[in-house]
Amino acid sequence: MRSLIMTLLLSAAPAQAQQLRETGLELVLLADASGSIDAQELAFQRQGYAEALTDPMVLDAIESSIYGSIAVTYVEWATNTAQVVDWTIIAGPDSATAFADALMTTPQRAFGRNAIGTALMEGMRLITDNDIRAPRAVIDFSGDSIRNSSGPNISTARAAVLEAGITINALPILRPEDGRRAGSNLEAEYQERIIGGPGAFMVTAESRATFAEAVRRKLFLEIAGHTPQSFDFAKLDPD
After folding, report:
1. Helix H segments across the chain?
2. pTM of the complete model
């Protein structure tokens, strides 16, 4: 009986392997939806990511990559986490537009206070438990605070993510005029306590007006495998 079971398992293995989707990058967009982000700001964040993913510069980076595609999921975090858009293989304008449309029409599902450790752990789970195989995996964490009100602490969660071979990049959202934000210290906190892994970097959104552009540049760097120090955007934006 044992030999029969082993034979069945071995014969099933090739079929399971064939179900894996291969692409160049697994990217979890992990966006802040905690109490410091109101409904208008939540919609603005989603709009920024939707515009970035359909931007010609980002699409060119995807199409020019060795696989010609990436896998992306959009997750909002607060006390709980919620997968707003499921894993999607983006390989051109049509798939990017479909992802953007889903992002803009899905209701908010994450609420409450900050639980950054929980969010990082969920980002890792979404990468390790999916049906996608890629040479690189990145959690793109964005937020306007470093507070952690519940769940695992940040250092423990970060260590687990890095141990799994996943890079954490960050997009701190600065609003110095708003007392709810961590202000000018947020960049230093994210540099020290959030980002990590091979090629990890941070791009700052200094204001609402610059958020969409910060997202666009950050996604380009992640997809192209660059960092802010290794790539000169003047090559693409001569004006």
Report:
1. 2-18, 39-53, 56-64, 93-105, 116-128, 154-163, 186-193, 208-224
2. 0.86
Residue whose entry in the numeric block shows the structure tokens 């990082």: 120
> Can you read off the two tokens belonging to residue 83?
């997968």
Q: Name, in order, each residue with C-beta under 8 angstroms of 225's C-beta and a sequence gap of 6 or more.
A: 136, 199
10-24, 39-53, 217-231: the lowest-pLDDT one: 10-24
Q: CA dist 50 to 46, 72, 85, Å?
A: 6, 12, 11
Cα(113)–Cα(101) distance, integer angstroms:
27
The answer to whether 99 touches 135, Cβ cutoff 8 Å, is no
Q: For residue 201, count CB atoms less than 10 angstroms from its CB and return exposed for 0-12, middle for 13-18, buried for 19 or more.
A: middle
Token pair for residue 208? 């609402």
C-alpha span between 188 and 115 (Å, rounded): 19
Each residue of 80-107: pLDDT tens digit? 888 999 999 999 999 999 999 999 999 8
DSSP-derived secondary structure letter, 108: P
Q: Which of 85, 71, 84, 170 has the alpha carbon at shortest distance from 120?
A: 170
Q: How many whole angstroms separate alpha carbon 50 and alpha carbon 58?
A: 11
pLDDT (tens digit per residue) in 141-170 = 998 888 888 879 999 999 999 999 999 999
> Is the pLDDT confidence value at 223 over 60?
yes
